[in-house]
Amino acid sequence: MKYTSEYREAALVQGVMEEIRRTVKHPWVLMEICGGQTHAIMRYGLDQLLPPEIELVHGPGCPVCVTSLELIDKALAIASRPEVIFTSYGDMLRVPGSGRDLFSVRAEGGDVRVVYSPLDAVKLAQQNPDRQVVFFAIGFETTAPANAMSILQAKSLGLKNFSVLVSHVCVPPAIHAILGSPNNRVQGFLLAGHVCTVMGYWQYPEIARLYSVPMAVTGFEPLDLAHGILATVRLLETGQVEVVNTYGRAVTMDGNRPAQQVIQRVFMDCDRKWRGIGMIPASGWKLRPEFSELDAEQRFSVGEIQPEESPICIAGQILQGLKKPHDCPAFGTLCTPEHPLGATMVSSEGACAAYYRYHGSIQEEITK
Question: Check: CATH 3.40.50.11740 for 65-170+256-299?
Answer without folding.
Answer: yes
